[in-house]
Amino acid sequence: LAKTTQPISMDSYEGQEVNITCSHNNIATNDYITWYQQFPSQGPRFIIQGYKTKVTNEVASLFIPADRKSSTLSLPRVSLSDTAVYYCLVGPESGNTPLVFGKGTRLSVIA
Amino acid sequence: DADVTQTPRNRITKTGKRIMLECSQTKGHDRMYWYRQDPGLGLRLIYYSFDVKDINKGEISDGYSVSRQAQAKFSLSLESAIPNQTALYFCATSDFPNYNEQFFGPGTRLTVL
Q: What single DSSP character describes residue A60?
C-alpha cells in the first residue's frame, strides 16, 4: 500500500475554509484515496473517497491532481464541531490488504 | 454506528487476567477488523477477517487472539492482559464493492492495572 504523509496538526478559525493536503507519491493505478474523520473517543467515520479530479459531498470536497501523487481535503466554513482528527488513506477498493491508518491530522477549530 | 456494537464499553482488569472483547454487526458485511488506539496515535490493526474461515494478523497481533464465530460476530481476546494493552479498542466492518469504507463501532476502553 502507498505510504501517505499529512501534517500532524492544523488550526483554523470558525467560518474559514480548511484544506488538508496528503502526499502519496507511490500511489498505484488501482488505488483510491479515502478520508476519515475521528472525533475524540469515537470511532473514525468515512467522509469521502475519490480516484481523480474532484469529488464533493455534503461534508467535504476532495481535490486530486492529474498525477494523483497528492490530494487535498477541503472543509468549507468550518465550525467548532469540525474539530477532529482527519486521516488520509490510499488503497484499492476491493483489495485484500486493509488500509493503514497513520496518525492523521489533528484539526483544531478556534472560535 | 449502531449497526456495529461492542461490548463491554469500558473494562478495568488486572495484569494476567484473560479478557474478551466482543463485536457484533447487523450490516451483513463480510469483513471485520479489530484496531487499537493509544493516546495521540492513529489506529493500529490487530486482526482482520475476510469471512468466517479467513483470519489474518495485522501489524500488532502479538498478545491477542480472535474468533469469528459467525459472519456477524468477531471477538478479540487478550490471553494474559498486561498494562501496555491499556488502550481504546475499535471494531469495524466493510463490504464489497468498497472495502475502503469501514464502519466503526463505538469502541471499548480497556484499562489493565
A: -
In whole angstroms, give the CA distance from residue A31 to residue B17.
42
A53 alpha carbon, distance to own chain's centre: 15
Residue A68 backbone zone (phi > 0: left; psi -120 to 50: alpha; other: beta): left
B103–A42 C-beta distance less than 8 A = no
Side chain identity at residue B24, one-letter code? S
Q: In angstroms, how far is CA A33 from the centroid of its own chain?
A: 8
The minimal CB distance from A99 to the residues B41, B96, B100 is found for B100
Segment A17-29 mean pLDDT: 96
Contact B98 A93 (CB under 8 A): yes
Go through A87-97 and write b for each residue having 16 or more CB atoms within 10 A of its CB, e for each that does not.
Answer: bbbbbbbeeee
Q: Which residues pair with B103 in a beta bridge?
A: A45, B93
- Write the residue in A41, A85, A98 that is nearest to B45 by C-beta: A98
Report the C-alpha gap between A97 and B45 in whole angstroms.
11
Q: Work out the average pLDDT over B75-104.
A: 96
Distance CA A26, CA A32 (A): 12
Helix, strand and coil percent figures for chain B, each rounded to 5: 5, 60, 35
Per-residue cell: A111: 472560535
Neighbours of A14 (CB within 10 A): 13
Query: Looking at residues B54-58, what average pLDDT do you find?
Result: 95
| pLDDT score for A95 | 81
